[in-house]
Every structure is written in structure tokens, then in C-alpha cells.
């Protein structure tokens, strides 16, 4: 059965970027003092922040509730501590999942010697009132060469288990590489970490994002690194 597809490509310069000195961040959705009613969420995805935290700096104690929060580190390291007694440090090619549930206070600091580059990604939980929980894992770069590497999923697709109806992937395409993503009744969010790729005949570059319905082929002639979020079309 044919399914009509819609696609929106948002270029790098339309991200809401702030530089606080200790933190340079780009908010892809409404966050903190950036409020845009037309950009509150996409499907089950509520927040995608592209953060660069300087050594010795970080986010002091703050509270979250009713969100599934995944942090993926591209470079450097970040240390987590929360009111549920969880502690952990994640570095390059590692991810952590925090279920904020009924409420948790946590902090995140860069205790290393180099800037920490990370993505912080929030999903709406499928069920409210869960107890807070924490998990972390390592995802070697070779595991995403020309294929989707699950980082976190609430759909049984691998990676860290989370209580959200979505799957978060990393993917590195080599020269001439391509992948099939999404499908009928699905939403796709793609964020290009590096390189360039083609989606539906349109080129996307570093820090560009794609929001679309349905399935597609992503191809790169010169290589590309990306995050792909695949989720059911249940929340808009």
C-alpha cells in the first residue's frame, strides 16, 4: 500500500545555538529559554541537544521527571551522579540511559582534560510513574560501519533498554555506502554528525537534520556519520 511521505530538512544554521563559555550548545527543539510552539517535539522525541562541555565544567544538580534521557558521547568524557545512588562515567562511543520516572536529581560534569562533545536526547516515556533507573554501555565504532547500530530502544531492537516507543541508532556510512531506514507508519529523525548524505534526492550536510514520515534510503558518496531515530507515528 502506498503511503504518502513528507520530509523536512532543517539546516545547521537554524539550530538555536548558545555559547556560555563553559558550554556551547545547540538546541534542536524548544528548550530552556528557547521557546517555539512550532518546534516542541517530533513524534516521541522531545529534546535533542548537541553539547560541548569544557573540562572541569558541567551541569550542577537539577531535577527531571517523566522522561527517558539518553546521552551519547562523541569525544571526551562526562560523569553522572543522581539521587537514586547511580554513578558512572562515559567516554567516546559510550552511552547512558536515565529513566527519570517519578523524579530524580542528577548532575553531569566533565572531569576529564579535554572538551566533552555529547548528544543529550530525551524521549516521552510510554508509561508515567516509573521508578528512576540508569544504565550505560559501550558501542564500538566498527559496529556501525555501513549499518545501523542500536544505542537505545524500547522496541526490542538492541542497545540500552528504555521505556519509550523509539529506537536510537548511530551509523557511519563509507564512500558509496547506503542504508534503508524507517517504514510505513514510522517517523524518522536524522542528524548528521559529519560528512554529507543524500535523502530523497536532497543533500544534507554536517549538523543538518531530517524529519520525515515513512521509509527512505540514505546514501553517501564521500562518507557520513549520523544519528537515526526511528519511531512509530503515535505522537505529533
Give a verbal description of the structure.
By secondary structure, the protein is mainly beta. The protein has 2 domains: 15-139, Sandwich (Jelly Rolls); 142-232, Jelly Rolls (Sandwich). The protein is built from no helices and 19 strands. It has strands spanning 7-10, 16-19, 23-27, 45-53, 58-64, 68-75, 77-82, 87-91, 94-99, 104-109, 116-123, 133-138, 149-153, 160-161, 167-173, 177-199, 202-205, 209-220, 224-232. Strands 1, 13, 14, 15, 16, 17, 18 and 19 form an 8-stranded mixed beta sheet that branches. A 7-stranded antiparallel beta sheet has the order 2-3-4-11-6-9-12, with no helix packed on it. A 4-stranded antiparallel beta sheet has the order 5-10-7-8, with no helix packed on it. It is globular and about 45 Å long. The two termini are 22 Å apart. The mean pLDDT is 95.
Amino acid at each position: 500500500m502506498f503511503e504518502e511521505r513528507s520530509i523536512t530538512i532543517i539546516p545547521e544554521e537554524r539550530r538555536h545555538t548558545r555559547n556560555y563559555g563553559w558550554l556551547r550548545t545547540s538546541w534542536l527543539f524548544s528548550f530552556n529559554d528557547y521557546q517555539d510552539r512550532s518546534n516542541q517535539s517530533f513524534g516521541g522525541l522531545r529534546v535533542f541537544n548537541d553539547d560541548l562541555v569544557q573540562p572541569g565544567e558541567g551541569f550542577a544538580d537539577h531535577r527531571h521527571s517523566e522522561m527517558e534521557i539518553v546521552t551519547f558521547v562523541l569525544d571526551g568524557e562526562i560523569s553522572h551522579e543522581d539521587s537514586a545512588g547511580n554513578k558512572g562515567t562515559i567516554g567516546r562511543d559510550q552511552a547512558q540511559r536515565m529513566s527519570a520516572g517519578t523524579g530524580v536529581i542528577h548532575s553531569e560534569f566533565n572531569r576529564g582534560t579535554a572538551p566533552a562533545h555529547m548528544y543529550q536526547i530525551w524521549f516521552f516515556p510510554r508509561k508515567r510513574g516509573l521508578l528512576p533507573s540508569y544504565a550505560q554501555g559501550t558501542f564500538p565504532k566498527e559496529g556501525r560501519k555501513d549499518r545501523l547500530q542500536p544505542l537505545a530502544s524500547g522496541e526490542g531492537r538492541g542497545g540500552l533498554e528504555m521505556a519509550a516507543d523509539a529506537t536510537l541508532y548511530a551509523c557511519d556510512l563509507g564512500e558509496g555506502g547506503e542504508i534503508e531506514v524507517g517504514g510505513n507508519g514510522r517517523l524518522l529523525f536524522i542528524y548528521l554528525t559529519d560528512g554529507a548524505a543524500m535523502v530523497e534526492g536532497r543533500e544534507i550536510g554536517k549538523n543538518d537534520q531530517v524529519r520525515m514520515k515513512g521509509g527512505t534510503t540514505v546514501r553517501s558518496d564521500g562518507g557520513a556519520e549520523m544519528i537515526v531515530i526511528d519511531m512509530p507515528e503515535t505522537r505529533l
